[in-house]
Amino acid sequence: MDNHTCPRPFVNEDVFPYTDGYFESRLDIVGWCAIPVFIIIFLLILTYAVLPKEATGRHYLTTVPGIGFLLLSLTYILPLIHRPDQCADHITPNDSTSDSMCTGTVVVIVVGVWFVVISCLFRVLSLHLYVVWEKKLGVKFMTVSLTCIFMGTIALSAMPVLVTGASYQFGEVCYLKPSGNNWSFLVPLIIVAVAIFILQIWTLIHCVMSVIQGIWVDRRYSTQASRELYKDGRTSVQSNKLLTSMQWRPMLTAFGIDLHVALFCALFIMVRTEHHFTEDTFDTWVNCLLSFPDDTDRCLPETGGLGPSEDLVFACFLMLGISGLWGVILVMRRSMIRGWIQLLKSFVRPARSPDIDLEHHNWKRFSETEKHSVRS
User: Fold this and answer.
1) Residue among 186, 166, 15, 154 nearest 91 (CA)
2) In whole angstroms, how far apart are CA 305 and each of 273, 293, 311?
3) Reported pTM
4) What are the pLDDT digits (tens) for 182-191?
5) Domain 21-375 has CATH 3.30.420
6) Are the CB atoms for 174 and 103 separated by under 8 Å?
7) CB 213 within 8 A of CB 205
8) In the beta sheet, which residues pair with residue 168?
């Protein structure tokens, strides 16, 4: 292609009109790894739908995040089904205003993110209210939670897509434009992530302090008469011990989601800083390109301080594509496998009651109302 008076390897920007697309860098991300993750998440949701609750321990605050993880994997599968037209011209990628596939992928990924994050917030909140404030949550909390999850996801997804816009920057999936007003996405995301972290830490500290207090009570009051005075307190301590040991799943989920949010917010902020660089920041890189027009890869070391590395970007979005795998690992139970075995056997002979593992027996120590609340 004629460079139109520009020294190689550069081209004349005036040749390409500012009519379509979005003018930013782009990287390539392969989404094949999302296919097996999508299948695994789909099987988990199918397990929740087919097997009895005793075998799955399902809860609405466990099922809804599964939908979000499914959408995150689907985002990277869609370009494999239909290859998008990434380029408006030779140097300009398309954006959400010029390509419908771009709009579709960014909507799916943003909706998936908010489904997971808001569901995690209410999961942590329900545990916090039950353990710390001893509130028995029921249908009213479930209604409020589901309403906030779905309505909040719609509102918080529409806002950045309409305000910020999206473009092909990292391969065949559209992401929010870093130079746009993407604070409409980052600020709510950071606020929710901080709320999740505070509530989870508060709950964890409360449980640990209760256990420590119980040990102190046991040592201080050795007689039977003294122990009777603290019977109610010790019962509460034992409950907190059981709750702490059994809530490792939501705890790890909350901290894992916070870790993902921190990484992606840091990545977007690093990309935004590129728009505040002065022109002389690029002098070394540009001079290298002019010196070696046929070997531009030789100049890559000169771009080290010009933003996040390609490896970091690839790693972050790969984590996003396979994040559902960690969600499945955290909610997976042996009783699910036994439940499927019993279900398959039922097609040949009358089904037996699914086996209940030791964890289910532990839950028997609580009332049905309390169990419903703690599961959330």
Assistant:
1) 15
2) 11, 21, 14
3) 0.76
4) 788 889 999 9
5) no
6) yes
7) no
8) 174
